[in-house]
Amino acid sequence: MAPVQKTIRTTIDQVAAAQGIKSVVNIQAMVTGGKDLTSEVVKVLKNKQ
Q1: In whole angstroms, how large is the CA radius of gyration of the chain?
Q2: What pLDDT shows up at residue 5?
Q3: In contact, 37 and 12? CB cutoff 8 Å
Q4: Which helix (H) or strand (E) holds 43?
Q5: What is the rounded CA–CA span in Å between residue 2 and residue 21?
């Protein structure tokens, strides 16, 4: 599982950086606001396959 988790984490970091986002939190930790990057991260991961 570790290689998969590392790939996902790296992709999240890349997507966030490309959008100028400096902090990424789990949706369960978000009280209000924010931007959901899930669909964009999934899209990049699919392109890596």
Answers
A1: 11
A2: 95
A3: yes
A4: helix 38-48
A5: 25
- Total of domains in the chain: 1
Element (H, E) at 48: helix 38-48
Residue 32 has what DSSP assignment?
S
Q: What domain range includes position 39?
A: 2-48
49 residues of the chain, pLDDT tens digit each: 899 999 999 999 999 999 999 999 988 888 888 899 999 999 999 998 8
SS3 string, 5-47, reads HHHHHHHHHHHHHHCCCCCCCCHHHCCCCCCCCHHHHHHHHHH
